[in-house]
UniProtKB/TrEMBL annotation:
This is Uncharacterized protein. It comes from Allokutzneria multivorans.
Length: 143
């Protein structure tokens, strides 16, 4: 399985963090698997006023190419500092914690639902791809 994104489709929006009023960035794009639409991700990167870098990622998996989103499911994770680790770590969380859920997201999964879902491996593969290749997320978390 080969994942890719199209740099021409990558979107970024600046916003203000609701909890600390620090600048933040939201980035999103389609993810292709072997050249075909596979997922959409939304990643919110925060600095929390100098208190630490973290990114919250929602990944929508399902079929693409039409207006029917009935098979879509959205997974969520937080990537950031964790105790006793020099590198950021990813943890599954409730999807769309920022209140962004809409029809495109389909069913938003809780942490427990995500960990038991048959598409969890696809979700983590997309997260790994975002962490390695997104031009906002990668430098935000890894410098």
């Amino acid at each position: 399985m080969s994942l890719s994104t199209n740099a021409d489709e990558h979107q970024v929006r600046e916003f203000t963090c609701g909890c600390c009023a620090a600048p933040a960035q939201r980035t999103w794009n389609f993810v292709l698997r072997d050249g075909s639409p596979h997922a959409v991700y939304f990643a919110n990167s925060y600095n929390h006023g100098g208190q630490g870098h973290e990114t919250w990622i929602d990944v929508i998996l399902g079929s693409w190419g039409g207006e029917n989103h009935s098979d879509h499911v959205t997974f969520g994770c937080r990537v950031g500092a964790v105790e006793d680790s020099p590198a950021p770590a990813a943890t599954a969380v409730q999807a769309c914690l920022d209140g962004s859920a809409g029809p495109l997201h389909g069913r938003t999964l809780s942490r427990e639902e995500a960990l038991a879902h048959p598409w969890i491996t696809d979700f983590w593969a997309v997260v790994d791809h975002v962490l390695e290749h997104d031009p906002v997320v990668h430098p935000h978390l890894y410098g």
